[in-house]
Amino acid sequence: METTVVLADDHALFLEGLRSLLAQEPDIRIVAEASSGAEAVDAVQRTKPEVVVMDVTMPGLNGIEATRQIVHQYPDTKVLCLSMHGGSEFVTAALERGASGYLMKDCPLEELVKAIRCISAGQMYLSPSVAGVAVSGLMAGATTPSISNLSSREMEVLQLIAEGHETKHIAEKLHLSAKTVATHRANLTEKLGVRGTADLTKFAIRHGIASMDAPGSDD
After folding, report:
1. Per-residue b or e along 146-181, where b marks 16 or more CB atoms closer than 10 Å to that residue's CB
2. Which domains occur in the chain, in start order?
């Protein structure tokens, strides 16, 4: 039986290589590709795939928030996170947002194919290298500052802050008032135990919410 898959990654060469490798599997069919979280959500809406292979760190809408939206809006579609980030905060946040699996990008092709098949069959899949990390992260809970403690809206605001957007631009982009954005910013600094835009940006980059080439704040 054929499994339909959407690939989401903002690195074109990696995406092309992934497509070429998976195309060799007779039971896997790539139905769409995306280079951002927003494009991934749109692709799922159009194609209704069984599985999305999702990069965690992408511009505009990160993979963790895109995972939440997809799982909420399209419960028949399963999300497999494929990332270079293996820290407990990434794995825990992805699983709490509804991901059905998590793999590192340096995993063998055979493991990726196995994970896609497992997830399409309704099972969970964690690579051995992150399974222990996931358990530790879930046991730690909210005892340490973590992206898993943030709401979806706070994640969006944090990403946009780290990408250098001013408060008024964030408000326009998310259809919020400037006062609401300021409240989210204050909640972020309190929850994460940081001070100011620079610290928020560093936290976002360190935790894969924004990339290293994010321009920084212009507030």
Report:
1. bbbbbeeebbbbbbbbbbbbebebbbeebebeeebb
2. 3-140 (3.40.50.2300), 150-206 (1.10.10.10)
